[in-house]
Amino acid sequence: MSKEIIEEAKKLNEKFNFFITLEAPREGIPIAFKDNICTKGIKTSAGSKILEPYVPPFDATVVERLKAKGFSVLGKTAMDEFGFGTFCVNTFRIPKNPHDPKRSCGGSSGGSAGYIAASKLAKFAIAQSTGGSISAPAAFCGVVGLTPTYGRVSRYGLIDYANSLDKIGVVAKTVRDASKALEIISGPDSRDETCQGAQFKDPPALSKKITIGIPKEWLAQKIDPEVKKAFDEAVKKLQAAGMTVKEISIPSTPYALAAYYIIALAEASTNLAKYCGLRYGATLPLEGGGEFWEYFSKVRGKYFGAEAKRRILLGTFVRMAGYCDKYYIQSQKVRQLLIDDFKKAFKEVDIIAAPTMPIIAPTFDEISKLTPIEEYSMDVLTVPANVAGIPHLSIPCGTAKGMPVGLHLMADHNNDELLVQVGEKYG
Amino acid sequence: MVKIGLEIHLQPNTKSKLFCTCSTEGVEPNTKVCQICMGMPGSKPRLNSDAFIAALKLAIAMNCKIHNISYFARKTYFYPDLPKDFQITQYDQPFATEGKLKMKDKEVEITRIHIEEDPASLKHVESKNGAAYVLIDYNRSGTPLCEIVTPPVFTSPAEARAFLEELMKLADYIGIFDAQEGKIRADVNVSIEGHPRVEVKNITSFRDAERAAQFEIIRQESVVARGEQGVTETRSFDQRTGTTDSMRHKETEEEYGYIPEPDLPPLTITDPELNKIIAEMPEPPYQRIARFVKQYKIKEEQAESLMSERALADQFEDVCKKSDPLLAAMWYSYVQKILNFNAVRFDKTGFKDSNMIEFLSLLSSGEVSKRGAELLLRELVIKPEPAKKAAERLGLLALSEAETKSLVEKAIKENPNAVNDVKSGKEKAIQFLVGQVIRASKGRAKEKTVLELLDIALKQ
Question: Does residue A282 have a pLDDT over 60?
């Protein structure tokens, strides 16, 4: 079986660019990991030129846990540089959507989602989300994307984008596959002090009556009418399965996107400081002497991509004295407000539903015409759950213009099991 | 008027580093390192609670207000000794604020104490072709530091230095620091009337802290005397010349772009946990000095000197339960002379209270003479063993009555004139005979026994 998996991955990679590094493990069931997850002895670049030659000396906790259950590392999948993107184009290896190679896989876990969509043998792959990086590519590629509650899966060995937002999760063929994989990788880990949630248990079939809430503020966003139509069909299917559907309100929605980008970029700009050509990854010759900061600047200038540079600049700006209160501290307040809104909503409903993405997977040509703000706006429906740290699940729900559409389900903190039960019931 | 403030970095004596399990005692460069203290991508910090407890003890000893919840922060700046290019420290919410260090004759205000990680150490090397390069040793990277900040309350360099010494003694006394081997550094900020505040970095000893402040005062005075406008700046101390130089560029607090450390939960200590630590704290040195003087009637200098190590003060109190405190205090002063001479800490010697009690009893019973006692104690402190056994081995024990008697008889025989003088009522002559016997015994004859035996012999 593992031989076939390796052979298939090779062929798919030639056609769709899913992998940055492809291995041929002799033992275990080969699994694909997003390239920002450290694998001992195997290159881990986080999709960045500055880390392209980097080989970690240790395994991430999720890798360790999967290896202990008889899995091995098939390869490291393509992603936006450090997770900075929604379409998996801000990197040196751009994966193509298996449903239409002219289109994006979505990002930033594009390689993992594309691979699962195209493979006939793989059941799941490891992905990671900061602001929607599991759900977006899952929706665009037509696979299941499961992002757990923040703190239920150890981040030890995950190359940081924004530590208070980063979550490791899975993309899978079915909800059940995703659930089984999450059971293996979740649970407390003393090496990550923010990982304190209980281990996730693959739950039995749903037995209780469920109420689903749809935030009116979210449907008021600019959503492709055909995507909206597919979503409406999905809602009908939920009702047909015996669930009650009602409109709810998340009043802080308009501020979520801005708050997300400020928090994420502030943290990212500190996380990326260490990449300066001194200890990790790419270096430059030391000829010509000069001061250390001149060398650091040369390395950073040469190897960071344009989007990484933009995010470092923005993140550094919002951390500056005099601006920090206005942007960063204010954003943390918005984050709390959003959590409060969700808590209130979850008193009324068990699950919140919305379309995962406002559009179908765009073509590379369309992406090249987007301004950064337009690109950031594509995260409008995935960001609230990510900022609040609540678990969310994207499930394929029909098509629009022949491309997959995702149904986004969200549950309260640590209700990942209920989320999976409802997802399974939807089918 | 001169104003001097201090920013002290003290490394508590934890076995492992602040955020990983690497040992803090690396000798060979880059041998005590791991992915965490080298900031490898994907690694995450994990707090060593021993370091926090040590810092808490220091804050308690300095009467600080301790905050149940405080936060770690990232201080971002680029420097080759900083593996992550940010330092995990505490910023606007440190765990301890508003303290006072009580010393014998005054109190010094403490602004704050926080914990942070030390960067790696750099070694500048001159290569053969003349180009200088720098070697980085990550052994130091991630070792815990307590940063103690005082307001500008010192009015002279000597006063600032005295405070540093007092602080170091206190940290040693409460058991979180080794005054002989521990690492402590201080940045000094100085301003004189008419000159803005100048911070001096790169100071590695207390003596240099004093020298740096002395130089800065003279420099600032000459700036003011020339009628120039002094500038607020950070200067670097040059150990060789004893002068300070402007540092071309040093980030200011505004440029560090602090954010809360997102990999670490808030640093918390509950009241019951805190009370447990407080209950285990030793009596503060200034209080104990006063009590020793009152309770044991010893001199203040003696009490202060006993406080140089907690183990010494503790043992003194144990010994006083069975021995004369005045005698004990006197001989513990001698113990300290022995320690200084051998450059060794008392708590490393293994010298027990039973050793001292036996020693003092040999001395007061006359089994060992005063001169023999000094010799004996020098031996005992360095190689502790039962005092009597050591005295015997060294031939310091007093002679038996029979041995003394034969020396007495010999003295009587050899000094007929003195014997006659005694018999004719010249009382002083007996002292001469006593002296003769003691000299012949090489100091080992007990004076009291000699007198008694002479008395008996001469009355016959």
Answer: yes
Contacts of B422 (CB under 8 A, 6+ apart): B429, B430, B433, B458
Global pTM? 0.89
The 8-class DSSP code of residue A325 comes to I
- In a 3-state reduction of DSSP, which class is residue A56? coil
Between CA B419 and CA B163 the distance in angstroms is 64
Q: Which of B152, B182, B169, B13 is nearest to B102 (CA)?
A: B169
Residue spans of the domains in chain A: they are 1-427
pLDDT tops 90 at residue B179: no
Q: Suggest the residue from A319, A320, A323 to mutate for an interface test with chain B (most B CBs closer than 10 A).
A: A319
Query: Which residue among A108, A112, A119, A331 is the active-site one?
Result: A108
Reported confidence tier of residue A44, pLDDT bands at 50, 70, 90: very high
**CB-CB neighbors (< 8 A) of A39 in chain B:** none
The CATH label, of 3.90.79.20, 2.30.29.30, 3.90.1300.10, 1.20.1440.130, for the domain at A1-427 is 3.90.1300.10
CA of B121 vs chain A CAs: smallest distance (Å): 15
A267 vs B259: CB contact, 8 Å cut-off?
Answer: yes
User: Per-residue pLDDT for B152 more than 90?
Assistant: yes
Q: Which residues contact residue B436 at a Cβ distance below 8 angstroms, ignoring those fewer than 6 apart?
A: B411, B414, B415, B418
Helix (H, G, I), strand (E, B) or coil at B13: coil
Our CA angle for A121, A403, A113, nearest 5°, is 40
Contact call for residues A145 and A171 (beta carbons, < 8 A):
yes
CA A191 – CA B43 distance, rounded (Å): 9
CA torsion angle B393 B394 B396 B401 (round to 10)? 40
Catalytic residue from among A34, A67, A76, A167: A34
Residue A331 annotated among the catalytic residues of the structure: no
> Could you give the CA distance from residue A270 to residue B70 in angstroms, rounded to a whole number?
21
Q: Could you please report the per-residue DSSP string of B246-264? A: E-S----GGGS--EE-TTS
CA-to-CA dists, residue B316 to B325, B329, B352, angstroms: 8, 7, 10
Residues 6+ apart with CB under 8 A from B320: B296, B328
Check if A133 is active-site: yes
Domain architecture of chain B: domains with CATH: 3-182+251-274 (no CATH), 283-393 (no CATH), 401-459 (1.10.10.410)
> Which two structure tokens, joined as six digits, stand for A397?
């729900």
User: Helices (DSSP H) in B22-146: which residue ranges?
Assistant: 49-61
Nearest to A166 by CA among A150, A189, A186: A150
Cα separation, A391 vs A129, in Å, equals 11
Average pLDDT over chain B, rounded to whole? Answer: 88
Beta pairing, strands A351-355 & B259-260:
unpaired
Q: Exposed, middle or buried by CB within 10 Å (0-12, 13-18, 19+), for A325?
A: exposed
Q: How many helices (H) and strands (E) does chain A have?
A: 15, 13
Ranges A106-120, A160-174, A322-336: which has the least confidence: A322-336
Q: Do A38 and B255 touch (CB under 8 A)?
A: no
Regarding beta strands A244-248 and A351-355, do their DSSP bridges make them parallel or antiparallel, or are they unpaired?
A: unpaired
**Rounded distance between C-alpha atoms, residue B235 and residue B245, angstroms:** 5
> Cα–Cα distance between A367 and A103 in angstroms, integer?
9
From chain B, the residues in CB contact with A46 under 8 A are: 41
**CA-CA distance, B146 to B403, in Å (whole number)?**
63
Are the C-beta atoms of residues A94 and A112 closer than 8 Å to each other? no
Q: What tokens were used for B354?
A: 């039973």
Report whether B235 contacts B270 (CB < 8 A): no
> Model confidence over B62-82: pLDDT tens digits?
999 999 999 999 999 999 999
